[in-house]
Structure formats: C-alpha cells, structure tokens
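Q: I have three molecules that I believe assemble together. Could you output structure tokens for the complex as a whole instead of separate predictions?
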Amino acid sequence: MNVFAKAMNAAASGMNAQGFRMRVISENVANTDTPGYQSKQISFENTYDRAADINKVEVGRMTLDLSPLQRSYDPAHPLADESGYVEMSNVNMVSEMADSREAGRSYEANLATFNQARTMYSSLLDLLKR
Amino acid sequence: MLENIKMLTIASALQRHSAERHSVIAENIANADTRNYKAKDIEPFDQAFARLSRAGVENNAGGAAMQSEWRTFEAAQLGSHSPNGNTVSLEEQMMQSIEAQQSHEAATTIYRKAIDILRMSLGRNA
Amino acid sequence: MDINAFNAAKTYGAARQSLRPELTGDKPSSSGSGDAFNAAAKAVKEMGAAVAQGEQAASQMMVGKADPHSVVEALASAELAVETAVTLRNKVVEAYQELIRMPV
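A: Yes, here they are, computed for all three components at once.
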C-alpha cells in the first residue's frame, strides 16, 4: 500500500471512530429524559493493521456509566416509587456537549489530513502532465 | 538515467520523506483520543538524508538508497499530556502535517523545474 | 569525422540500425565516424532501459503494488529519455539530408 493510501486509511479510521463516538453521544443526549437510562461510554483503541502497515484507531468496548441515576420528585409520573421519586437517566448534558465538540474537532482534523494526502497525491501525479 | 542528477535525487528523497512523515502524522491525528497513545514522528530530513547518502556512498548505490528508510520514533511533545496518557496535541499535529504537505509541494515543484530545465536543454520549448 | 556522402550514407544506415533496440550492439563504434553515433546509440540504449522501467513501474502501480513516487520518477525518466533519443535522431537525419543536398 502506498504512503498516501496509508495516510488516507489512517485518517478514514479516525473519522470512522469519531463518527461512531458522535453517534453514541447523540444516543445519550436523545435519552436524557428516558427513565432508567444509563449513558453509554466508548473508548478508542489503537490497533496495528498488519496488511496496511498502519496504526489505525478502533472503537473499543462500549461500557455503561454506572454512576447513580438522577432522582427527581414527580409523584404524578407513572414510574414514580412510593415516595414520589422517579429515577431518570444519568446522562450528564454538559460533558456530553463537551464530548461532542471534541469529536467534531477531531473529525475535522482527520478530514483535513485526508484532504492533504489527496492534494499531495494529485500534485505528485501532476508531474506527469505538462 | 535521472538518478545521476543530484538535484533530482534530493527532490525525490524529500518527496518520499514528507509523504512518509505525513502518513505518520495522519496516524497520530487518527489516534488523538486513544488511551495511552504516544505521538510519533520521523527523523528530520537533513539527518535522514545525510545518513542515507553516507550509506549510499558506502554501498556504492548512489541514489538507490533513498527508498523510504526513515526512522520513526516517539516524538517529544512538550507539555501536552492528557489524563489518559495520550501525548498527541491536535494543534501541533495540524501544524506538522501542513509542514509536511508544504515540503512535499516544494520538492514536487523543484522536481518539475529540474525536468523542465533538462527538457529545455534538448532545444525545444518546454 | 571524415565527411563524404558515402560515409554519411553508411553511418546513417548504422544509425538506423542502432535506433532499433534489438540490434543495438556496440557495432556503430566500429563504423569509423564514432563519437556522435556512440552517443546516439547510448541514448537509445538508455531510452530502452528507461522505457522498460517506466512500463514496469506503471503496470505495477496499476495493480496497486508500486510506490507512486517511483512510478512518477520512472515515467518522467522514460519521457526524457525518449525525447533525448528523438532529438538525436532528428539531428542525425537533418545532418544526413544536409549532406545529401550538398553539391558535389
């Protein structure tokens, strides 16, 4: 595999991973008001792709956030317990938003390197044109 | 035939070097959020070129030694350790990737110019 | 280099032969008016090698095996070699025609 393809492959794996992260974040945000929802968390792992000779990034195991669920007082809620509290999700909106910003930023960085590799390749091939 | 022209040899070595460096940087950026990932870099072109041309002279291979034998190492990143052990600084990597792209562009332009000059010596308009 | 029409015709024949890669030996050097033809023959040989290299690199790249830098270098080298050979051939032909038109 040639150098440019390697760079583009690595960047593509990065975009893939960040895209997946964004998906998980939006699932979490969408389920903020779902009673009993535990927010999902993912981590990235660095894997060596032997065939392509590059260090790709892959999404590791997905884990659930085991921190206690938020309890809110709402006796009218169908899922309320005897004392009138409902267990809502444990999604932390602030950290989800921060995470989504970071995912977007990393995605853009990967996209930029992808485009750079493409430009470099085409400028190299331009040598053969007159 | 063109291996004997030093300008072309250097330009082509620089092209290979910056392409290789760019792909290392692409890996760093892809792994910008990976736990315990250490940012990598490639040895600077002047050092690599000196080493390879020494090797080329010893092996009597001339420019043939310039086939992407670049050493990769863990880059010393200044003050950018995140709590998860990752040492990639996205901004720094963006800067470096642009550097790599620019030196590739420069090498390509020099290569093209050298070819144009040779063609001009044949007595036609390049 | 002795200049007479007969010699020119002879060397032109030798040059024609030397422009066919399969016949390119070291023959032209023995045919008297050496230097220019040696140079031409050498250019032709180099052209043959460079074109073969370019061809090989290009075909390897098209099946996704070669490094694009080597391909570009090989093809640029082939192009230049062919141009050199063609220029030399044109010069030889030109010289021959000039000699042919010379009033004896």
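A: One point stands out. The first strand of chain A starts at residue 40 and ends at 49.
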